[in-house]
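Intended use. Records like the one below are meant for learning the mapping from a protein sequence to its folded structure. Do not use them to infer anything beyond what is encoded.
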Amino acid sequence: MTARAKSLTGWVVLLVAAAVCALGGWSYLGARGDDGLAYAKSRDAALADGKDRLARLNSLDAKDARSVDAGLGAWLDSATGPFHDQLRRTRSKDAEELTKAAATARAKVTDAALTALDERAGTAEMIASVDVEVTPRTGQGGTERKRFEATLARTPDGWKVKALTAIPVGSGT
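Structure written out for the chain above:
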């Protein structure tokens, strides 16, 4: 290969490398401002927070009054709006009943999906299937399968449950 051919090959390689770098930069800038990407991040955050909040709202350790109080506090931290107000109003009655029952419930969201997301309004609708392992003070425990429909609202602390509706297992919804 002649010196001139080597020089030309070097320039071609340099030109191709520059074109690849320019294309990568253009692609990055396009993706960075992509509304679809921002929407996907918001959707993922709402779903993750919703699953976490729903698991907390179905979990409680009622071995003693202090555990019940901490669990009800976690419930309040997971809720917002009218649902939060309802939990606050019924907190003392709930604490009394849960302390008497002395059962432990551990929830795991097995499947969930957002059915709607309005980023501008800061609201989302979620459906979820939850397995709740219940361990009573005496007797045999078991796992209950529950389904929920939840309305989520964006707050400064992330997405929280604004409304919660139980859906009977086996219903057509």
